Amino acid sequence: MGRTWNNKAWFMVLPVLLLVAFSAIIPLMTVVNYSVQDTFGNNVFFWAGAEWFEEILHSDRFWEAMGRNLVFSAIILVIEIPLGIFIALNMPKKGWGVPVCLVLMALPLLIPWNVVGTIWQVFGRVDIGLLGYTLRALGFDYNYVNDPFDAWITVIVMDVWHWTSLVVLLCYAGLVSIPDAYYQAAKIDGASRWAIFRYIQLPKMNRVLLIAVLLRFMDSFMIYTEPFVVTGGGPGNTTTFLSIDLVKLAIGEFNLGEAAAMSIIYFLIVMLLSWVFYTVMTAYDAER
Amino acid sequence: MARLDETTANERTLMRQTPATAEAQTANAALARKMRRRGEESRFWWLVPTIYIIFLMLPIYWLVNMSFKTNQEILGAFSLWPRNPTLANYAVIFNDPSWYRGYINSIIYVVMNTVISVAVALPAAYAFSRYRFLGDKHLFFWLLTNRMAPPAVFALPFFQLYSAFGLIDTHIAVALAHCLFNVPLAVWILEGFMSGVPKEIDETAYIDGYSFPRFFLRIFMPLIASGVGVACFFCFMFSWVELLIARTLTTTAAKPIAAIMTRTVSASGLDWGVLAAAGVLTILPGALVIWFVRNYIAKGFALGRV
Amino acid sequence: MSFSWMAWTWPTAAFFGTIFLLLCGMAVWEYASPGGNPRIGVLRFETTRGDRLFLSLLGSAFIHLAWLGLVGPNLWWALALSVVYAIGVFRYV
């Protein structure tokens, strides 16, 4: 990489280190402390050992939320990644269409998450929302407030609406980096449309696709605001994902010990995934 | 592996067949473009982006549409556009301090956060892009985990932490809390941009007798100006869109607009028109500046790694 | 300003103390023999001893959780297993 070895560089990193340590390490230590104790408020704590962890690991509620979250993330990836690639392949390559497409497509990414929730909450309502009203008019028995299936569909369509553009933009960034000469060569070889995609475009998009998959997985794994605003985790518990469950436990029920234990398990999973992300990324950079 | 081999094979064919003269090259490129336009790219390629953009715009249009209607019209006859367009909903927001204070609060903590994040991230990103030091890789990774960490995990301890410092319901509390994910983001983005600046520039400047601060401000900053802009934009954005932590750390004096909106939703007797107008106003900042970062937006969302 | 809300206990303090000492130890080790002894082990990509420590700690955490969830509350066995795992990581990864 050509970077020189210089331990004085630590002084440049120090402000970041102090700032993030303040916001990350102190809270994390607190969570660990809470997770092994029980409290009835007023900062009076009792030693509980690993009981909270045992309770969480044997609680159906936790595993159900985890299961829902994994299913949700899987559905999101299966829809958004191919759709994103498909749209990116059909984006204009030059001319006035490029900035227009980029700007319009990026717009949902920049909307506050709770407003995304509000937009879809309104849009899906059967009395005043375009989507709900149209579906009703077409004869569907659509109601995301009472029907778990409809609630899931709404949350998934919302996430597709919100985040597919991220995949599109990343893939597009990969595609425009392919020199024209590659296509030219493929043309001379008489390559089919599929062959061009499979052997020229896909390999060039590898890296960005990897980023897209990992980012989409991580972000859908910690989704909170959007489904919370639309469904509030309901009907029943059917759209209660991990983060929603955690906030309910920590702030709604003020069950500190259990919430802390759950936070730690959640955080460990995220650590593992981040590590995969980082390792794969650096391995790619080293190859280049 | 097979795929890689085939790509290299393609490249090799390419080398063999590319004519030496520049003239022939441009002619060939034009031919290829023409063939591509006629060939695999069908005439209806524009259909896909158009349909997708319509799908994206419909819900937003609906929100804008509602913001120009009165409550009676929203709840009454179903119409695709406002029959009697009114600005009354926007007037409510701009005349009621409990509404517009929310925007001011949000903007205050978001700007504070952006300034803090980018200011501390600049030297750190420089260090990561130029030097190797003890534990650099692990530090960089640790920053990433903070960007990836679910805010829900931190909501409760943040409340306790900022209560202990007496900072609950202040703008600086939210600004500092948002640094948790914005500082790593800024470091990653800036590192990406700085690595694109050749190291020789630094060395030449030092030989020319520039001190580090002078070099950094006079020579280096202009070179990565677009990177700083993009980093600022993304810090602004991610602080602006976040709700969970901002809501947990504030009660009244620093309550962000996002939290005020959720309060209105949960109250009985909803004022849909005002809610829609408030929503439209939160979309505007992003919509206004997005043009300037359109070419870097993928890079920003991918943590500077595209 | 009081920190009683952090609810420190001796075991958790010892836990974080150990982690801190481990990090200091790694720094000293790195200072004594720089470079981090990079090699390609069973995971097929290059790891340094810092990566190996991270993998050991993260893996141990998951071993403890699995033990609690699948076997029982006696975590000393999980600890023993983690030590074996950590030695394995430092030896082969």
Automatic annotation (TrEMBL), chain A:
GO biological process: transmembrane transport
Signal sequence, start to end: none
Keyword Cell membrane: no
Top-rank taxon: Bacteria
Membrane-spanning parts: 12-36, 70-89, 101-123, 160-183, 208-225, 264-284
Location(s), subcellular: Cell membrane
SUPFAM superfamilies: MetI-like
Key words of the record: Membrane, Transmembrane, Transmembrane helix, Transport
GO cellular component, one term: plasma membrane
Topological type in the membrane: Multi-pass membrane protein
Family the UniProt entry places it in: Belongs to the binding-protein-dependent transport system permease family.
Protein name in UniProt: Glycerol transport system permease protein
Species, as recorded: Mesorhizobium muleiense
Lineage, broadest ranks: Bacteria, Pseudomonadati, Pseudomonadota, Alphaproteobacteria, Hyphomicrobiales
TrEMBL record, chain B:
UniProt keyword annotations, A-Z: Cell membrane, Membrane, Transmembrane, Transmembrane helix, Transport
One GO term (biological process): transmembrane transport
Keyword Oxidoreductase: no
Chain segments annotated as transmembrane: 44-64, 107-128, 140-159, 171-194, 215-241, 272-293
ABC transmembrane type-1 domain location: 103-293
GO cellular component, one term: plasma membrane
Subcellular location, record wording: Cell membrane
SUPFAM superfamilies in the cross-refs: MetI-like
InterPro entries for the chain: BP-dep_ABC_trans_perm, MetI-like, MetI-like_sf
First-listed, main subcellular location of the protein, grouped into a coarse class: membrane
Gene3D superfamilies associated with the record: MetI-like
Topology term for the membrane: Multi-pass membrane protein
Family annotation (Pfam families): BPD_transp_1
Keyword Protease: no
Family label: Belongs to the binding-protein-dependent transport system permease family.
Protein name in UniProt: Carbohydrate ABC transporter membrane protein 2, CUT1 family
Organism name: Mesorhizobium muleiense
TrEMBL record, chain C:
Swiss-Prot/TrEMBL keywords: Membrane, Transmembrane, Transmembrane helix
A Pfam family: DUF2160
Spans traversing the lipid bilayer: 12-32, 53-70, 76-92
Family matches, as InterPro entries: DUF2160_TM
Protein's name in the database: Predicted small integral membrane protein
Species this chain originates from: Mesorhizobium muleiense
